[in-house]
Amino acid sequence: MPGEANQNADMTGSDEAGNAVGRATDESDGGAAAGTVSVTGTGSAEAAPDLVVVSIGVECRADSVAAAWSRAGTSSDAVASTFRRHGVADEDIRTSGLNVRTDLVWREGEGQSVTGYVAASSLTVRLRTPASASAAISEAVEAGGNDVRLNGLDLTFADDAEVRARARDAAWEDALRSAEQFARLASARLGRVLSIMDTVTPQAPVPLPRMQRASSVEALAVEAGETAVDMGIRVVWELKALT
Predict the structure, then answer these.
(1) What number of other Cβ atoms are within 10 A of residue 151's Cβ?
(2) Among residues 216, 230, 240, 206, which one has the least CA distance to residue 46?
(3) pLDDT value at position 203?
């Protein structure tokens, strides 16, 4: 569906014979030469996501670095093994964070003191079957126990080429309508396309996927819904005099 266009035009006057005339310009934005109209169009397309990317980790406290590290490794392995049992391939499970730090506390009159050590590990997991994502995530959380930290998830596409193409089609239609309007206002007509390029389209805040409480066994259910992809294009047309 087309969005609201952000458009600008660089249109010429005419000479004594009524022909469109102009001179080339060298603007900082790569601006169009006189005798052209430059328009930015936006468009959007929606589709059901086919990929769930989960960020999940563990955080373990212990009296020694070795104990914290060992416990974190055990919990992280349990989480990863759960995803593998749900058919997640090794290449779709990636360690995205790993650290050990001291656990400090401030006591009046004593200052800071070390009370233990914290080892943390994070995994980024790609779930290619959104329908079964809820069960896989719930079992992984259960496997990690109180050490688990579920950092969030993203609903996206394994390959967004088709939905991006539809969004670009909508952006083209948006740009063309605006350019035709500018041409009418200038008592001219559109000529050939001189240039066309993708532009960066500001993304509106994307709501988190809807999650609903299901039961004590399946704690949260993830509903994929649809995800929107926005595209923008900038097109420069030649402006010609009406004949």
Answers:
(1) 13
(2) 230
(3) 53
pLDDT of residue 112: 82
Residue 239, SS3 per DSSP: strand
CA angle 154, 73, 64 (to 5 degrees): 125
What angle, 0 to 180 degrees and rounded to 10, lies between the N-to-C axes of helices 65-85 and 133-144?
150
Kind of pairing between the strands at 51-62 and 93-107: unpaired
pLDDT at residue 45 is higher than 70: yes
Structure token digits, residue 146: 């109180």
State the average pLDDT for the chain. Answer: 81
pTM of the model: 0.67
Does an H or E element contain 138, and which? helix 133-144
CA–CA gap between residue 32 and residue 24 (Å, rounded): 8
One-letter amino acid for residue 25 of the chain: T
